């Protein structure tokens, strides 16, 4: 029994952070292999690991002696700014909810307060998702919070409450295939829920409690009428005991991936009203069927919205009058895509899957206009990035099985032209859109990590971006995903970037060399769309042996001007190929490139 006054020391929080990074690092490949929802892109483990790694980096930057609340808030805020993917963003919000609003005095974090924190974490996670789906990390968070409150009300000590939360999340994870059909078909548990269970298991272990292990899971499965080696597979037949299963080094949580459907269902744990509605209830169709899921967008778009200028953690204080933009951002992004998650307070991280990245960014900018700005706008073409990691589709209705292949080479492009983003991303690059200002080195490093490659080539598109990229190359260190080195090529304009990527598409090997060769041939100029200026600019730019002229007009350029440019070009260089690209920029200039 406890009077609720025992508390978590700052040192224990730091130990939890370290153990969480270690645990997710060891489980990364297994979680990736079970990732089928919302998109089977095999990166949930990677995303959760990168998210907590950034949180750990923020904690390590704190001086010794900081109180518990300060350490928790640093962990959550670092995770928020470094969050990747659906799962990472939701996990960062779980941590933010657990940390709670910054208090005016650091109070003891006892068993009763920890139960309240788990409830706050579950509510915050659920509220962050525009369209909650049952059988996911949200259900695991709700199950953990309900169990924690029940344990605290029954008089459990602090460790008992944390263990109860871990076990409640674990039970919710086990029933995930019965709540989400895509998991049942694939024969896996929810990857995000699994990651959350591991985060809570790490906290149990630093408190001195036993961690979950394969033996315990086998006993639990047997009690439910099966065993991990003989549970129903995706086709209804017994699973092969030799099949890969989710696990963590050291014996933690073996045999996870094969626990499915009937043997996984635990109908005893119900969410507490204090936690808020369970996603399993809120998202289930009225007829009792399973919520439908599917591919929900060609691109993943993520960005940070912040008030003020520069580092939001320095410029936004508790006293700053900043409206909460989360609900408005969530609503705006739902109009242009799916898998919408928005988290944060005064600084927001947003995630959406969409077929139109430009509309997503424009919608966010409209919401934030006059109140906040966008930064760290990262766009990935989902299918291309999945292919780069060597993920193969399994048989119909089963989970994909990645080779855990780390690409040797990746490409980052930086641009301020929103109209170019879709094609740049489709070419295989991870795109950093410099929406409101030149990028910071940390933002370039982030997108370099997001390529999942060891060596990343950056095509900066401007002098300012090139400087940031060169600074980012100096920041590469252990903990930056699989990234080992960053190389910055001389691509001073968007037209250089386009030419380099086009050249890379023409070769199967030696893409970096092909890009360098193409960049050496490109000449570019920007000129106002004025007849008296365009002709001399073209005459100076074009050479008799040029093969391609690229025209990139601003949105305010009259289409007739483009026709004139084409006519002049073909008069000077008969047979030249002319390519017109939409920059998406709101100006009346022409950008011209010849090669």
TrEMBL record:
Query: Which intervals of the chain are annotated as region Disordered?
Result: 266-289
Low complexity compositional bias, start-end: 273-289
Q: Enumerate the GO terms in the molecular function aspect.
A: glycerone kinase activity
Membrane spanning stretches: none
Question: What is this protein's name?
Answer: DAK2 domain protein
InterPro entries per UniProt:
DegV_domain_contain, DhaL_dom, DhaL_dom_sf, FakA-like_C, FakA-like_M
GO terms (BP aspect): glycerol metabolic process
- Specify the DhaL domain's residue ranges: 11-205
């Amino acid at each position: 029994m406890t009077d609720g006054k025992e508390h978590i020391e700052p040192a224990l929080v730091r130990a939890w952070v370290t153990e969480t990074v270690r645990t997710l690092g060891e489980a990364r490949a297994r979680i990736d292999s079970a990732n089928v929802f919302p998109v089977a892109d095999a990166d949930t483990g990677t995303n959760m690991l990168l998210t907590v790694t950034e949180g750990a980096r923020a904690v390590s930057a704190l001086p010794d002696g900081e109180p518990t609340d300060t350490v928790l808030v640093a962990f959550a805020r670092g995770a928020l700014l470094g969050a990747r993917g659906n799962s990472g963003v939701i996990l960062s919000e779980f941590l933010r909810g657990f940390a709670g609003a910054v208090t005016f005095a650091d109070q003891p974090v006892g068993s009763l307060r920890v139960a309240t924190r788990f409830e706050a974490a579950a509510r915050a996670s659920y509220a962050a998702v525009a369209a909650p789906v049952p059988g996911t990390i949200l259900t695991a968070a709700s199950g953990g919070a309900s169990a924690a409150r029940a344990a605290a009300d029954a008089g459990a000590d602090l460790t008992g409450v944390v263990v109860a939360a871990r076990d409640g999340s674990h039970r919710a994870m086990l029933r995930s295939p019965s709540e989400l059909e895509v998991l049942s078909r694939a024969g896996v548990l929810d990857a995000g829920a699994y990651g959350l269970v591991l985060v809570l298991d790490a906290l149990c272990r630093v408190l001195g409690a036993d961690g979950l292990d394969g033996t315990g899971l086998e006993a639990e499965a047997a009690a439910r009428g099966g065993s991990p080696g003989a549970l129903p597979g995706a086709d209804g037949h017994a699973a092969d005991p030799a099949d890969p299963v989710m696990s963590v080094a050291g014996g933690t949580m073996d045999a996870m991936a094969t626990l499915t459907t009937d043997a996984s269902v635990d109908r005893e744990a119900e969410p507490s009203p204090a936690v808020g509605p369970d996603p399993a209830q809120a998202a289930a169709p009225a007829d009792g069927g399973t919520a439908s899921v599917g591919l929900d967008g060609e691109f993943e778009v993520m960005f940070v919205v912040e008030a003020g200028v520069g580092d939001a953690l320095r410029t936004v204080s508790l006293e700053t009058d900043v409206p909460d933009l989360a609900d408005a951002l969530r609503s705006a992004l739902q109009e242009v895509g799916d898998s919408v998650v928005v988290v944060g307070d005064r600084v927001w991280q947003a995630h959406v899957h969409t077929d139109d990245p430009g509309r997503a960014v424009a919608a966010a900018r409209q919401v934030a206009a006059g109140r906040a700005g966008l930064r760290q706008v990262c766009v990935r073409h989902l299918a291309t990035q999945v292919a780069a990691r060597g993920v193969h589709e399994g048989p119909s209705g089963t989970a994909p099985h990645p080779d855990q292949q780390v690409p040797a080479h990746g490409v980052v492009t930086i641009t301020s032209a929103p109209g170019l983003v879709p094609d740049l991303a489709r070419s295989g690059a991870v795109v950093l859109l410099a929406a409101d200002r030149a990028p910071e080195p940390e933002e370039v490093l982030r997108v370099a990590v997001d390529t999942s490659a060891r060596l990343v080539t950056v095509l900066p598109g401007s002098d300012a971006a090139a400087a940031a990229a060169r600074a980012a190359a100096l920041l590469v260190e252990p903990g930056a995903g699989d990234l080992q080195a960053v190389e910055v090529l001389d691509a001073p304009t968007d037209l250089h970037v386009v030419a380099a990527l086009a050249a890379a598409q023409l070769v199967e090997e030696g893409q970096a060399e092909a890009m360098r060769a193409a960049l050496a041939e490109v000449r570019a100029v920007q000129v106002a769309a004025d007849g008296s200026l365009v002709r001399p600019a073209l005459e100076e730019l074009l050479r008799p042996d040029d093969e391609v002229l690229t025209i990139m007009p601003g949105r305010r350029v009259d289409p007739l001007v483009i026709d004139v440019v084409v006519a002049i070009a073909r008069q000077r260089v008969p047979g030249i190929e002319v390519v017109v690209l939409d920059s998406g920029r709101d100006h009346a200039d022409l950008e011209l490139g010849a090669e």
